[in-house]
Amino acid sequence: MMNNKIPPPIVTLICALIIYFSSLFFPSYTFPLFNALSILILGSGLLLIFFAVKSFKKAQTTINPLQPDLASFLVTEGVFKYSRNPMYLGMLFILIFISLRFNLIGGSLVALGFVIYITKYQIVPEEIAMVKLFNDKFIAYKSRVRRWL
């Protein structure tokens, strides 16, 4: 059973709104490099999410993060060769993009909070479900591929 009942995209949206609206409480930092860097990070995040979803669809397994126990296949190819959680990594990249654009300090704090929250309430329960479903196969995958990056 999942600890988290809030879908990760909604958590990401809430974090993005907090980053944007809390910018009044933090000093503003803008550097010319931030624009180009933020676009690169946003593009990377969106591509990670796109390719992760594509891998799940190709494997015909569930993409529902609130019901990982319904997974019918352990996806380890494509972007999953480099990160066990490329969708969450993509969401983090989107938050970093927003932080670079609107609120560097506050956004960094919120992004760190996102990582802690998603790890504790989403990833760890998913990993428990994956061990139950795929046992040694998931344990071997977990030993060679990092959780985030």
Question: What features would you describe in this structure?
Answer:
The protein is an all-alpha fold and about 150 residues long. The chain has one domain (about 10-20, about 30-145). Helices cover about 65% and strands about 0% of the residues. The protein is built from 4 helices and no strands. The chain has helices at about 10-20, 30-60, 85-100, 105-145. It is elongated, with a radius of gyration of 16 Å.
Uncertain stretches: none
Biggest sheet layout:
none
How many distinct helices? 4
Silhouette: elongated
Alpha-carbon Rg, integer: 16 Å
The ordered H/E elements are HHHH
Helix content: 55-70%
Number of strands: 0
SS-based class:
mainly alpha
Mean pLDDT: 95
Number of domains: 1
State the separation between the terminal residues, measured CA to CA: 26 Å
Key traits:
149 residues, elongated, single chain, mainly alpha
Quick take:
This protein has one domain (8-19, 32-144). It is mainly alpha-helical and 149 residues long.
